[in-house]
Amino acid sequence: MIVEQNLPLICAISDKVYAIKEGRVITKLEGDLVKANVCEQYL
Amino acid sequence: MNSGEILTVKNLNVSYGEAKVLFDINLGVKPGQVVACVGRNGAGKSTLLKSIAGFIKPLSGSVTCDGVGLIGLMSYDIAKMGIKYIPQDKKVFSDLTVRENLELGSYATKDYNWDQVTDYFPKLTQLMDRKAGNLSGGERQMLMIGRAILGSPKVLLIDEPTEGLAPSIVSHLRVVFGELKKNPPW
């Protein structure tokens, strides 16, 4: 399990991404949705 | 255990004193999966990892690994169970050499085979006699990851491993994480 801001790295290695905002999981991305341009909106 | 998950977090709530920082967190990690948490600074990502690793006592909720509850266990007992936390601050035993830092990892895990560590991070071989306090940030990160993979951990909890590192080191870590995923140390 990895906490990281480097989206290209995350998208290269992750099966699943949880986006956390203000202490809450706001979305879970899996499969084709694990892309930098999708994850970027949660940073 | 839930749906074959090795790590399950359910309804986790965490606060620092009066300030609540995590609200009903639910997530799961299956064996061999890489699961990332993204979010802005202060979102609670590091707090989540520290809570799983036993450094912060949650208000409520559960964390289980292989069906064993982790809440209330000491961080060193959680580490002994094979859940290794690699903190963001890249703290090593500065007055000890790289070799001595790795020996501590071996002593704790009874794993004295460093082949995988030096395969992933050949540079550590040249640095064995150097004090860890004199390593660069990238070299420290290699040492921390190397130490963490000793003893065939079940779960690695890695907090912002590339922060402040040179692009060449980041590229190397990307390859290492990819290899760890393909050939996990457990």
Q: What is the topological layout?
A:
The complex is a heterodimer of chains A (about 45) and B (about 190).
Chain A: E1 2-3, H1 7-13, E2 16-21, E3 24-30, H2 36-39
Antiparallel strand pairs in A: 2-3
Chain B: E1 7-16, E2 19-29, E3 35-38, H1 45-53, E4 60-65, E5 68-69, H2 75-80, E6 83-86, H3 98-109, H4 115-120, H5 123-126, H6 137-149, E7 155-159, H7 167-182
Parallel strand pairs in B: 6-7
Antiparallel strand pairs in B: 1-2, 1-4, 4-5
Helix pairs in contact in B: 3-6
If you had to describe this structure to a student in words, what would you say it looks like?
The complex is a heterodimer of chains A (43) and B (186). With 43 residues, chain A is α+β, with helices and mostly antiparallel strands. Helices cover 26% and strands 35% of the residues of chain A. Chain A is built from 2 helices and 3 strands; from the N terminus they run E-H-E-E-H. Chain A has a two-stranded antiparallel sheet with strand order 2-3. The radius of gyration of chain A is 9 Å and the shape is globular. With 186 residues, chain B is α+β, with helices and mostly antiparallel strands. Chain B contains 7 helices and 7 strands; from the N terminus they run E-E-E-H-E-E-H-E-H-H-H-H-E-H. In chain B, the strands form 2 sheets. A 4-stranded antiparallel beta sheet of chain B has the order 2-1-4-5, with helices on one face. A two-stranded parallel sheet of chain B has the order 6-7. Chain B is globular, with a radius of gyration of 17 Å. Chain B starts with 6 loop residues before the first strand and ends with a helix. Chains A and B meet through strand 1, helix 1, strand 2 and strand 3 of A and strand 2, strand 3, helix 1, strand 7 and helix 7 of B. Strand 1 of chain A pairs parallel with strand 7 of chain B, so a sheet runs across the interface.
